[in-house]
């Protein structure tokens, strides 16, 4: 039986797993955050797991949610654990200010609370427990005192925790740059891996497990690309360790469980990381993040860089040994460094990493700085001044974000990362041409020349999604089906518009007219600054689904993305055509002729 506690849009349900074991799942149907990993706007879940007590063992709560779920999670927990005087152990697999806030709420009501965390997680808990978000001078009253930090058990590497009814919980510390306090839990008798952030998907569902792997593939891949790709090396090591366990079900912190195809998911994680590991260029991303805002900026920049096929090596300054930091700086082709501003200063670990960069960094390699702030931004000023005075060249202007980036800012940050990476690729190609005497082997390949003889109609793809919009010139377009009417479009991975073309997203395909294509192509082939309006100066019409139409085109189609297939450096989209029309009944379609299949 499923029981729920509801407040506003969010609510919590109980999903029985086995005798004495249940999942408390908080459901959030709407997108409530602007971080990149939520961009598919399919809601999310916050999955916790409760092992009941017996006469010899206390109850154990694994992976409690953040404070955003407090109003619906705490009543649901009280429903199954009504006696707050009984001991309760909490496995904290992920530590951030939001989760600490909920733990403080529990500490106020549960007199015998014990926290279980990794070594890095315990350090973060001590730092964050008495920390509050700063308020402007003269605003607000003195807040009430905070409860004392409960006793903590620290997991150094691996440790087994006895549970009720003869069960055992294996706890594995899995530190990563994004989540240094990572702690996974595995219950052997059920084969249940409670993986927290790993293998997650932001998807709101009350089903315990996914229907099949393909049903959540896009959401899990999107989560991986946003958060896992910059630390692919560490993630691969984790997958190696997990394959030694007798897993039957993976239950992540977000989204449905994976019970029948978890091996396929582990293989996907390996495959998705291969391209990042094999990339010839490497961008090192250094940062620290007090409240998660600077980390959100770092995620968006990293996602933009990764779109181009360049590897991102993400390092958390607070937990990176000096020898690893120095080695990473020496191996980097470019470096981005970010910091929050706390009390008018950059955190000590960032200042230390900056000193290492100044001492060990190659001045011929581009850098970029970024950071978040509340009422001042001295940390970013410090990074910029020291690096400019040190002779470093900047790949983009310093980025300053007040509090957390909103959805438009996230997209702009992603485009900034892509532009930064493209500059590196252009420099690499120039160097390769010089070393090859100016010849390109691929362009002289007969098969590549023959491939260039495949022609396509010239089109402009346009899309609008809420306050975001995008466009690109498209010539790799083809009709794909009669019933239903459908088309395929190839979209390069580094196109800014690609982020707006996931399953369910709508767009318009504006087919250009022969002899009148020059003006529109000039508009959409020009380089745009990150976040710039692609439609500035144009008169537009709207399709039935509010997609931008170009009246100077020959014809238009409105499509909805049904499937996405990864094809090397492009995504192949299949879209069902819902509407269409012709602007000019007498005109002909503009066609794109190429001399080589090595480029557009």
Task: Specify the structural class.
Answer: alpha/beta
Strand order within the widest beta sheet: 1-2-3-4-5-6-7-8
Question: In CATH, what is the homologous superfamily of the largest domain?
Answer: Ribonuclease Z/Hydroxyacylglutathione hydrolase-like
CATH topology of the largest domain: Metallo-beta-lactamase, Chain A
The figure for the number of domains is 3
Global shape:
globular
CATH architecture of the largest domain: 4-Layer Sandwich
The CATH class assignment of the largest domain is Alpha Beta
- Count of β-strands: 29
Kindly list the characteristics that best describe this protein.
single chain, 600 residues, alpha/beta, Metallo-beta-lactamase, Chain A, Rossmann fold, Pnp Oxidase, Chain A, 3 domains, eight-stranded mixed sheet, seven-stranded antiparallel sheet, 13 helices, 29 strands, 28% strand, globular, disordered N terminus
């Amino acid at each position: 039986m499923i029981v729920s506690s509801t407040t506003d849009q969010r609510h919590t349900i109980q999903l029985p797993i086995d005798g004495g074991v249940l999942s408390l799942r908080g459901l959030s149907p709407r997108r409530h955050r602007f971080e990149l990993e939520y961009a598919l706007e399919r809601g999310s879940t916050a999955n916790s797991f409760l092992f009941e007590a017996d006469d010899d063992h206390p109850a154990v709560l694994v992976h409690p949610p953040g404070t955003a779920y407090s109003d619906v999670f705490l009543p649901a927990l009280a429903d199954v654990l009504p006696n707050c005087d009984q001991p309760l152990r909490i496995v904290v697999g992920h530590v951030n200010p939001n989760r600490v806030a909920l733990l403080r709420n529990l500490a106020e009501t549960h007199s015998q609370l014990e926290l279980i965390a990794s070594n890095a997680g315990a350090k973060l808990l001590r730092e964050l427990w008495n920390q509050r978000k700063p308020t402007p001078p003269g605003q607000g009253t003195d807040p009430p005192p905070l409860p004392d930090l409960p006793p903590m058990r620290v997991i150094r590497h691996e440790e087994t925790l006895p549970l009720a009814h003869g069960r055992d919980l294996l706890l594995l510390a899995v530190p990563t740059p994004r989540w240094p306090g990572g702690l996974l839990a595995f219950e052997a008798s059920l084969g249940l891996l409670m993986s927290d952030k790993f293998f997650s998907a932001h998807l709101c569902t009350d089903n315990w497990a996914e229907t099949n792997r393909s049903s959540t593939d896009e959401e899990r891949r999107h989560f991986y690309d946003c958060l896992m790709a910059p630390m692919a090396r560490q993630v691969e090591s984790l997958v190696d360790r997990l394959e030694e366990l007798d897993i039957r079900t993976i239950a992540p912190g977000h989204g449905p469980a994976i019970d029948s195809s978890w091996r396929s998911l582990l293989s996907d994680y390996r495959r998705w990381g291969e391209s990042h590991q094999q990339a010839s260029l490497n961008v090192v991303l250094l940062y620290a993040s007090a409240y998660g805002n600077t980390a959100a900026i770092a995620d968006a920049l990293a996602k933009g860089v990764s779109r181009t096929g360049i590897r991102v090596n993400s390092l958390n300054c607070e937990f990176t040994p000096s020898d690893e930091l120095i080695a990473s700086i020496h191996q980097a082709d470019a470096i981005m460094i970010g910091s929050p501003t706390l009390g008018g200063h950059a955190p000590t670990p960032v200042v230390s990493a900056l000193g290492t960069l100044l001492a060990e960094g190659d001045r011929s390699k581009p850098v970029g700085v970024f950071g978040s702030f509340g009422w001042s931004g001295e940390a970013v000023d410090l990074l910029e001044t020291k690096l400019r005075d040190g002779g470093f060249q900047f790949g983009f202007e310093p980025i300053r974000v007040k509090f957390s980036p909103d959805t438009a800012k996230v997209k702009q940050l992603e485009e900034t990362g892509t532009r930064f990476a493209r500059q590196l690729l252009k420099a690499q190609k120039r160097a390769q041409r010089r070393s090859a005497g100016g010849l390109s082997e691929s362009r002289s390949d007969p098969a590549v020349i023959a491939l260039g003889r495949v022609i396509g109609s010239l089109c402009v793809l346009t899309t609008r999604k809420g306050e975001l919009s995008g466009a690109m010139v498209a010539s790799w377009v083809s009709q794909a089906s009669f019933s239903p009417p459908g088309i395929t479009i190839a979209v390069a991975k580094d196109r800014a518009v690609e982020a707006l073309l996931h399953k369910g997203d709508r767009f318009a395909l504006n087919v250009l007219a022969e002899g009148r294509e020059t003006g529109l192509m000039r508009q959409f082939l020009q380089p745009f600054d990150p976040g710039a309006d692609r439609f500035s100066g144009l008169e537009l019409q709207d399709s039935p689904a509010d997609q931008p139409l170009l009246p100077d085109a020959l014809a238009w189609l409105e499509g909805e993305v049904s499937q996405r297939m990864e094809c090397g450096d492009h995504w192949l989209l299949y879209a069902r055509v819902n509407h269409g029309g012709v602007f000019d009944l007498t005109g002909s379609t503009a066609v794109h002729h190429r001399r080589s299949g090595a480029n557009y």
